[in-house]
Amino acid sequence: MRVIAAMSGGVDSAVAAARAVEAGHDVIGVHLALSKDPAAVRESSRGCCSLEDSADARRVCDILGIPFYVWDFSERFGREVIGDFMDSYARGETPNPCLRCNERIKFAALLERGIALGFDAVVTGHYARIDDEGHLRRAEDPKKDQSYVLGVLGRHELDHCLFPVGDTPKPQIREEAARHGFPVANKPDSYDICFIPDGDTRAFLGRTIGVRPGVVKDAEGTVLKEDTDVFGYTIGQRKGLDIKTPAKDGRPRYVTAVDPTCGTVTVGPREHLAVTRIHADRLKYLHPAMDGEFECTVQVRAHGGLAPCHATVDRAADSLTLELHQPLEGVAPGQAAVLYLPADDDLGDIVVGSGTINATGRSSQE
């Protein structure tokens, strides 16, 4: 096959590209330029997509002897990822920009151009697996599993994906990179949001969407803090609340709701974070089971947030309702709900599909 190796500049994509070459594919390396001014992203950031990353990707391709290109997707990234991130915060949601980047840029946009140029698939260093029947599965290394952030892909994108490192634990990937002589063999993993390399989300939002003045209230409606920036809070937040009056029971407070329209942030005890019902829309269908009613497991964060549940899918209404068999905490609108089915083999759970959470609550029986 003619394949595009998406080269982030990290060790995982480097080994994925090497394995694609070893498998006999006709491979080119492509690094995505996602910023109009990549020099503004400091070197050695814990994000990605910097000039340093581009140079690392080029060196790996030179060692592999494959062509290397940089494709400029900065406009689309700004519109569909950064713009979506800001809009979501303005609605009081908790977005995951890396999910949207995977969905709209690293797969949809890359594949769109690649297929137009005659390529068959995209190879990435994501930790996930596709089985012989085309189902997306969890990775061999549970600590590195990235099936959650891939659960927002559509069936078309998944049918044109290769994930060569999903069957290998991370330490072995680094050893393999070292054997190839890749300079990124010991490069740290990236964690931060690439367009906020200093990690200060509140300051970024202040520069881009401004400040939404408001108040912090408790569940009874008592105002605890005034002249605050509503955009600076997220569901489940405990630190940085700066409330001078302690709770009557002396326990910590958590953010339980954010309403930018009314300019209010609600705080309460930890148990107020627990939800047993989740509603979602913008559904993605990756398995025939994603229809009607069925039992499954839902994951609502990239790391953790797992619960068994009963799912009800209404395809006509683009609607998903989940009744959780055990409560989850810190579930916020804007997050993805990715559904899994257990498998009889040892390849890991199967991703059924996903939706974007738009509301949460407690079941009527409680």
TrEMBL record:
One of its GO terms (biological process) is tRNA wobble position uridine thiolation. Its EC number is 2.8.1.13. Residues 277-357 form the tRNA-specific 2-thiouridylase MnmA-like C-terminal domain. Residues 203-268 form the tRNA-specific 2-thiouridylase MnmA-like central domain. Keywords: ATP-binding, Cytoplasm, Disulfide bond, Nucleotide-binding, RNA-binding, Transferase, tRNA processing, tRNA-binding. ATP binds at A6, M7, S8, G9, G10, V11, D12, S13, L32, G125. The active site is at C101, C194. Gene3D superfamilies: Adenine nucleotide alpha hydrolases-like domains, HUPs, Translation factors. Residues 144-146 are annotated as: Interaction with tRNA. Its main location: cytoplasm. The record marks H126, Q335 as: Interaction with tRNA. One of its GO terms (cellular component) is cytoplasm. It is an enzyme of class 2 (transferase). SUPFAM superfamilies: Adenine nucleotide alpha hydrolases-like (SSF52402). The keyword Cytoplasm applies. It is found in: Cytoplasm. The keyword NADP does not apply. InterPro entries: MnmA-like (IPR004506), MnmA-like_C (IPR046885), MnmA-like_central (IPR046884), MnmA-like_central_sf (IPR023382), Rossmann-like_a/b/a_fold (IPR014729). One of its GO terms (molecular function) is tRNA-uridine 2-sulfurtransferase activity. It comes from the Bacteria. It catalyses: S-sulfanyl-L-cysteinyl-[protein] + uridine(34) in tRNA + AH2 + ATP = 2-thiouridine(34) in tRNA + L-cysteinyl-[protein] + A + AMP + diphosphate + H(+). Catalyzes the 2-thiolation of uridine at the wobble position (U34) of tRNA, leading to the formation of s(2)U34. Belongs to the MnmA/TRMU family. This is tRNA-specific 2-thiouridylase MnmA. It comes from Corynebacterium spheniscorum. The lineage of its organism: Bacteria, Bacillati, Actinomycetota, Actinomycetes, Mycobacteriales.
